[in-house]
Amino acid sequence: MKGSRATLPDLARQPSERSSPRIFLSLGSNIEPHINLPRAVRQLAEQVTLRGASRVYASAAVGGPPGSPTFLNAAVEIATRFEPADLKFRILRPLEAELGRTRDGNRNAPRTLDLDLALWGERIIDDPIHSIFLPDPDILRFAHVALPLADLAPGFRHPVTFQTLREISAQLADPQRIRRCRSCRLDPGEG
What we know:
By secondary structure, the chain is of the alpha+beta class. The chain has one domain: Alpha-Beta Plaits, CATH 3.30.70.560. It has helices at residues 8-13, 33-45, 84-98, 143-152, 165-172, and strands at 23-29, 49-53, 57-59, 71-79, 114-120, 125-127, 132-134, 178-180. Strand 6 (125-127) and strand 7 (132-134) form a beta hairpin. Helix 4 (143-152) runs antiparallel to helix 5. The protein is globular and about 45 Å long. It starts with 7 loop residues before the first helix and ends in an 11-residue tail after the last strand.
């Protein structure tokens, strides 16, 4: 911080000295994902404290038009002073837009980047006005959300079901539908 005035990224990066909740984001892309996912992680690391990044997984697009490109998905753990709505609308949505994400009303359209709040400690939020639902309901529905989160925190308990992320991902993992992308990297220090 410069002097006594903090910039937006400065404030977002400063986790509380007290124990802060474990915050997890899900990332996905099926338009130039090998470029967009690492770039997103690098840019996130400039605005929040990055605590960890999962492996990258490849899977077919869910609900997209036939022939949609394969999605690459991952997760990151972060720390920030922002509350969920502020993080979503001041950091995540602008980053999606910066990397070329357009929102045309088709929830399943191909995209350069999808950044979602997945878990915020033990918080449970049902906020349809801001479209914030924590924990993300897709954790219990899709392997491409659950597996990357389980990479980061296998023993973390889902705040509603109390299952561990390892247990949830084991129930959803299907090697015919999702696989680890061994050539993909999210290291924010690369490139």
